[in-house]
Amino acid sequence: MDFSLNAAQQALQARTRAFIAEHIMPMERDPRQTAHGPTEALRTELVAKARAAGLLTPHASKEAGGLGLSHADKAIVFEEAGYSPLGPVALNIHAPDEGNIHLMEIVATPAQKKRWLQPLIDGHTRSCFCMTEPSPGAGADPSMLQTVALQDGDDYLINTCFTGGHAVVRFDNLRVPATDVLGKVGEGFRYAQLRLAPARLTHCMRWLGAARRAHDVAADYARQRRAFGRSLVEHEGVGFMLADNEMELHIARLTVWHCAWVLDQGEKGRHESSQAKVICSEALWRIVDRSVQVLGGSGVTDETIVARIFRDMRAFRIYDGPSEVHRWSMANRIARG
After folding, report:
1. Less crowded by CB within 10 Å, the N or C end of the chain?
2. What is residue 124's three-state secondary structure?
3. What sign for the dihedral angle of Cα 290, 294, 297, 300?
């Protein structure tokens, strides 16, 4: 069992880490970085930096302009990118684009790839993934899906309503040509599973980097800030919190690496990705929460990046399956023996 990184992985890790530190982190206070993410102008600028550095959309195939990373390679690069909230945007590895690129590379036709996939890989367009519907529609339970696609000649008419974090989107007899259907009709649920397991893991990779950033900020502060005659880190209560952070970062990373290895073996990784999603989302949340506590008042203000990470990470325990749904799913597998 070898946990070491090969020479190519070490070089890619160092290259990504240097790029994030030198070109992306200095832009975190750019006023175009809003509560909902960067404006399109800032996104375009960030993407241009990654393109110039040869790091844009590294998970895409080499034929399409990416680096053709394995899942294990992605675990390394995505963690480094996640160290800055703008990192995944710059490298074009953020959700949902990363997962949609993965899916389209598998099932899209050559014509669909040329029209829809390549501009996404090149960083010129964005994408979305619509699944969550208002009650009584689908959420964590996709079997409750109310969306209807009726064939009308050579087209399909789609009727549905999607509730997301930015707006409510209604499809009223939206006409979609049959040539734009991904894969075979009736196979949508199976295709979604091809996307969801790897996408759960890439969320873990990115948030692992963010949690490491929060811990580093808190540890640096604890070494410098003094109270009651000594630095904060020398107080057992603070030092133990930081020690717990390091242990949980290690556990989360090993969980990610193992699941990545499983996927690289060609397995579906449903059980492993569920485990990773729960372990990482809960452990990383605890790490960031402790970091806020160590920082005190500055941990809940824009004085450091930690408040932003704290605010953004909470939803990680909900999307791509709440922890409770993954536990329920794993329990069902255990019950079946």
Report:
1. N
2. coil
3. negative
Distances (CA, A) of 183 to 24, 75, 189, 297, 322: 37, 28, 11, 52, 28
As to burial, measured by CB atoms within 10 angstroms (0-12 exposed, 13-18 middle, 19+ buried), residue 325 is middle
Mean pLDDT score of the chain:
95
| pTM of the predicted protein model | 0.95
The continuous run of DSSP H or E covering 192 comes out as: helix 188-224
Q: Is the pLDDT of residue 17 over 90?
A: yes
Q: Which residues of 244-258 are buried (b: 16+ CB within 10 A; e: fewer)?
A: ebeebbeebbebbbb
- Which residue bears the tokens 């995505």? 78
The residues near 120 (Cβ < 8 Å, ≥ 6 apart) are 97, 100, 101, 104, 126, 127
- Report the run of H or E that residue 172 belongs to, with start and end: strand 168-177
Q: What pLDDT shows up at residue 167?
A: 83
Q: What are the tens digits of pLDDT across the range 126-169?
A: 998 888 898 898 888 888 989 999 999 999 999 999 987 778 89
φ, ψ of residue 173 in degrees (nearest 5): 50, 45
User: Domains in the chain, ordered, with CATH?
Assistant: 7-94 (1.10.540.10), 142-180 (no CATH), 188-336 (1.20.140.10)
Residue pair 293/219 in contact by the 8 Å Cβ criterion: no
Residue 304 has pLDDT above 90, yes or no: yes
What is the rounded distance in angstroms from the CA atom of residue 78 to the CA atom of residue 55? 11
